[in-house]
């Protein structure tokens, strides 16, 4: 369950859950275990995310530096052979297959049973022994070597060097499995201007690049320093050279506890870039993708995106105190690296603090090396740190609070009251202390970070709090505590640096009566290992898992609050009701992604949109929510009414509505007064696009007017046209006079909707009688209005259509209607009112989609008024009041008949039952509770159905 939860959280954090491949088999325990092993393997050896572990076995490794065999495990994957000793920090080894020249079985002996020898291009030989299945291991390594691209080998292939013939090589080829996809397949392919993949591109001669670290370039003019600091630096370089001679140099170097000691003592500036690449694993990616950075730069430079605008804004804020970034060369190099990464990973693009870290990388590395180090930081070593929500930093902030509670319980209680931990830790982790500590001191922490990982940042952070514990316990507010910690970090110095001192920006802004004592950064690092060195990377990962749950919940709560705040002024619902509606709305969308049959939900989820636009529902999901939450339920007619409501809310006509549009529709039904509710019902029965045409005509009229003004007068100032454009964009306040007139067919549909709405009301008989009276009145009003809508002249009667009687001839007199009302039920009065404007049934539609949203009169069956008793008529039956079959077959709608909304409203106000019905407020709380219960049942049924289908298919 923990593995499943981890996968689900990763999908939520990375926004990949909606893009899941439904064709893949469902996860089982074996698959989950394999996934967990792959993640541990990649994290242990700093490998790329697409590296797949093929297998591992116990073995021993001969270490020439210690003249002994070390017990551990051998790991084999599609691109690497790795070894890790059973005893922590004793020995670790990474051998890329691209570096392997010979793989062979050595002679066995009682001292060295079942050995395998692996030689590399740089003349290093590794001897593994005590292998249980040596033949199988050699065969698997040979298979992976055969799949390695030929361009990485140079003049010879390692299998050919090991004694295999060409025919044997061809017979040894194995078709690659889906789990051994080359790394390059997971990288975005740069394309040229025409959209075709670019092949063999190189840097343009006119493209300036930093071919070495900026620190070396700007230190050339400095006089050579022969003081004790330079001597100390030379001693460090010599120590590393001795280490390289004894343990090897490059990616295949033996990594032991001696290596860590040298890192903690400080990496020489001349070797810093090389070792950063080695320890982070960036060297492997750079070696397997030659020219990739150049292609990205050529593709990305010159483009204008949101990421490039943010990069330009922050370029001059990146270490402005360092002279390397006070000129165009350093700024241009930083621009190219950040822009190239934004092009490679548009999901991250650019995030604040990336500029600070990248500027430090450029001081010691070339542009391409800095780019691959940035890839390692953002995608492996600090996952989810650099994005719009800094999710990874929030997770580690929670981990740091938990570690503070365990290691410094007294200080934790006091700091929680002040709220300091959450404030300070975010800047510490995002920039690896580079923004809060002098550069020469912070860069030593970066050395340790690339070797040890995030655990060293936690250790140093705890050591800083421990060193200031007594002072912090005496603080009374957050500002005082922040000042104490800020001054402490400003005075962490590196007394061994050979670079000229760089004034720290925070130190320049900090003032005090007495300067605080200096703290040696080496003593701070040593103290962190002495006091908190027991922290383990696997323990931190478990703590991260727990914190991700809290971070996800916090982010979801923040999104919910943001959406509710954005629409609360436009809705009459309370904040609590809006929050519950948001949960239901989002749940309906997400359930369609995992339990629905269609995949449209995955396509329409765009996490880059604002919170209000991220989750949208289509017509089918809206109909389900409308049936559960709506107050105007019409039985079988509910789907039709919901479709009309959806069409009205979908203002941009993309087939989707967001949460604000959804709440707007519900708010009118629940909290609107009688006028607003009738206005909504009236608009639901107008033809689609009617109002859009009216708005279009008004815009065209304004533009024509502008053209006329331009033609008859002098050209206006640009501000005039900006005001005209802003005026067009302003939302128009719609009044009841702006509503178009309703024709006879639309009026019939409105009567049908009201008829179905009243069918389950306790006062249905009174409502039927009232709506019948109103319908008859409006029919007569429409007849009278024909005289005025036709400019006061009545159209001549069409003598050719003798079978189409006018509605006026069939309208009952008020006296007759009143006498019939005494002997008939309210339902029969509605039938008579509808019958006065009914027409013959057209041919029946056969399309499922047309029938589903059929709002025409033909969707209702019709019979003669005298053939059936009204109480025996079904809800979807409408009676025709005709004198005979001949008239019934020839009935047509009156195209001149129409009424306005004011007339509908005035007629409704004459009937108290209708006024009471539409003034009644609905209770959405009860409906939401019922909807939640129904949702739980739907999920159980959906899961059971999927399982049963799977069983039947097998």
From TrEMBL:
Residues 175-191 have a biased composition (Low complexity). Pfam families: GRAM, RabGAP-TBC. Its main location: membrane. One of its GO terms (molecular function) is calcium ion binding. It comes from the Eukaryota. It is a single-pass membrane protein. Residues 175-206 are annotated as: Disordered. Gene3D superfamilies: EF-hand, Pleckstrin-homology domain (PH domain)/Phosphotyrosine-binding domain (PTB), putative rabgap domain of human tbc1 domain family member 14 like domains, Ypt/Rab-GAP domain of gyp1p, domain 1, Ypt/Rab-GAP domain of gyp1p, domain 3. It is found in: Membrane. CDD domains: PH-GRAM2_TCB1D9_TCB1D9B. InterPro entries: EF-hand-dom_pair, EF_Hand_1_Ca_BS, EF_hand_dom, GRAM, PH-like_dom_sf, Rab-GAP-TBC_dom, Rab-GAP_TBC_sf, TCB1D9/TCB1D9B_PH-GRAM2. Keywords: Calcium, GTPase activation, Membrane, Metal-binding, Phosphoprotein, Repeat, Transmembrane, Transmembrane helix. Residues 266-453 form the Rab-GAP TBC domain. GO terms for cellular component: membrane. Residues 637-672 form the EF-hand domain. This is TBC1 domain family member 9B.
């Amino acid at each position: 369950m923990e593995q499943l939860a981890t996968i689900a959280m990763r999908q939520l954090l990375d926004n990949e859950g909606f893009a899941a491949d439904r064709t893949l088999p469902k996860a089982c325990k074996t698959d989950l275990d394999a996934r967990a092993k792959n993640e541990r393997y990649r994290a242990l050896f700093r490998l790329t995310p697409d590296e797949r572990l093929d297998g591992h076995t116990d073995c021993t490794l001969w270490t020439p530096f210690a003249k002994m065999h070390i017990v551990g495990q051998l790991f084999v994957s599609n691109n690497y052979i790795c070894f890790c000793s059973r005893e922590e920090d004793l020995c670790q080894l990474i051998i890329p297959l691209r570096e392997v020249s010979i793989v062979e079985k050595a002679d066995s002996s009682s001292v060295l049973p079942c050995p395998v020898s692996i030689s590399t291009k740089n003349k290093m030989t590794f001897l593994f022994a005590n292998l249980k299945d040596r033949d199988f291991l050699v065969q698997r390594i040979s298979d992976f070597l055969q799949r390695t691209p030929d361009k990485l080998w140079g003049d010879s292939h390692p299998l050919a060097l090991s004694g295999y013939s060409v025919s044997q090589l061809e017979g040894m080829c194995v078709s690659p499995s889906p789990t051994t996809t080359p790394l390059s397949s997971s990288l975005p392919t740069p394309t040229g201007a025409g959209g075709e993949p670019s092949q063999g591109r190189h840097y343009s001669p006119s493209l300036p690049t930093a071919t070495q670290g900026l620190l070396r370039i700007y230190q050339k003019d400095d006089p050579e320093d022969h003081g004790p600091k330079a001597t100390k630096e030379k001693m460090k370089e010599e120590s590393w050279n001795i280490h390289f001679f004894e343990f090897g140099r490059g990616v295949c170097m033996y990594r032991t506890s001696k290596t860590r000691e040298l890192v903690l003592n400080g990496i020489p500036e001349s070797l810093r870039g090389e070792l950063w690449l080695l320890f982070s694993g960036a060297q492997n990616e750079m070696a397997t993708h030659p020219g990739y950075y150049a292609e990205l730069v050529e593709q990305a430079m010159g483009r204008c995106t949101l990421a490039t605008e943010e990069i330009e804004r922050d370029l001059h804020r990146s270490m402005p105190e360092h002279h390397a970034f006070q000129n165009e060369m350093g700024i241009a190099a930083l621009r190219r690296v950040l822009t190239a990464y934004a092009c490679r990973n548009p999901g991250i693009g650019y995030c604040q603090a990336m500029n600070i870290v990248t500027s430090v990388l450029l001081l010691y590395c070339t542009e391409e090396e800095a780019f691959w180090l940035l890839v390692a930081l953002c995608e492996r070593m600090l996952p989810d740190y650099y994005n719009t929500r800094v999710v990874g930093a929030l997770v580690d902030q929670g981990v740091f609070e938990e570690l503070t509670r365990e290691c410094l319980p007294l200080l934790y209680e006091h700091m929680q009251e002040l709220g300091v931990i959450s404030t300070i830790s975010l800047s510490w982790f995002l920039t690896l202390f580079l923004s809060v500590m002098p550069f020469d001191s912070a860069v030593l922490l970066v050395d340790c970070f690339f070797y040890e990982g995030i655990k060293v940042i936690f250790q140093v952070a705890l050591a800083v709090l421990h060193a200031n514990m007594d002072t912090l316990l005496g603080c009374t507010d957050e500002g005082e505590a922040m000042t104490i910690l800020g001054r402490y970090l400003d005075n962490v110095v590196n007394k061994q640096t050979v670079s000229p001192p760089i004034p720290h920006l925070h130190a320049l802004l900090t003032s005090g009566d007495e300067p605080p004592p200096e703290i040696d950064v080496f003593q701070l690092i040593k103290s962190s290992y002495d006091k908190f060195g027991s922290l383990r990377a696997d323990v931190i990962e478990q703590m991260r898992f727990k914190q991700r749950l809290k971070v996800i919940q916090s982010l979801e709560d923040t999104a919910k609050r943001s959406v509710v705040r954005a629409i609360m002024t436009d809705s009459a619902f309370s904040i609590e009701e809006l929050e519950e509606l948001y949960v239901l709305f989002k749940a309906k969308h997400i359930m369609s992604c995992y339990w629905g049959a269609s995949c449209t939900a995955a396509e329409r989820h765009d996490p880059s949109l604002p919170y209000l636009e991220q989750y949208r529902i289509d017509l089918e999901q809206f109909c389900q929510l409308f049936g559960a939450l709506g107050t105007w339920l019409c039985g079988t007619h509910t789907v039709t009414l919901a479709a009309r409501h959806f069409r009205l809310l979908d203002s941009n006509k993309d087939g989707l509505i967001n949460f604000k549009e959804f709440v707007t529709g519900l708010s009118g039904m629940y909290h609107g007064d009688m006028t607003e509710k009738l206005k909504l019902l009236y608009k639901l029965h107008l033809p689609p696009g009617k109002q859009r045409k009216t708005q279009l005509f008004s815009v065209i009229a304004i533009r024509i007017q502008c053209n006329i003004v331009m033609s008859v007068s002098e050209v206006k100032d640009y501000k005039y046209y900006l005001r005209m454009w802003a005026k067009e964009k302003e939302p128009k306040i719609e009044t009841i006079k702006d509503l178009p007139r309703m024709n006879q067919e639309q009026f019939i549909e409105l009567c049908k909707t009201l008829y179905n709405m009243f069918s389950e009301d306790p006062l249905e008989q009174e409502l039927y009688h009232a709506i019948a009276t109103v319908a008859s009145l409006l029919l007569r009003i429409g007849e009278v209005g024909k005289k005025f809508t036709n400019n006061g002249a009545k159209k001549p009667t069409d003598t050719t259509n003798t079978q189409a009687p006018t509605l006026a001839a069939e309208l009952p007199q008020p006296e007759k209607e009143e006498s019939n009302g005494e002997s008939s039920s309210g339902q029969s009065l509605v039938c008579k009112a509808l019958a006065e404007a009914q027409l013959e049934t057209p041919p029946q539609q056969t399309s499922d989609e047309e029938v589903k949203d059929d709002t025409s009169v033909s969707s209702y069956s019709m019979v003669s008024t005298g053939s059936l008793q009204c109480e025996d008529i079904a809800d979807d039956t409408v009676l025709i009041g005709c004198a005979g079959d001949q008239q019934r077959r020839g009935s047509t709608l009156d195209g001149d008949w129409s009424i306005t909304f004011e007339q509908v409203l005035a007629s409704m106000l004459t009937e108290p039952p209708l006024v009471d019905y539409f003034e009644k407020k609905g209770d959405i709380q009860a409906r939401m509770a019922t909807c939640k219960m129904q949702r739980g049942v739907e999920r159980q049924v959906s899961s059971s159905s999927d399982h049963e289908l799977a069983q039947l298919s097998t």
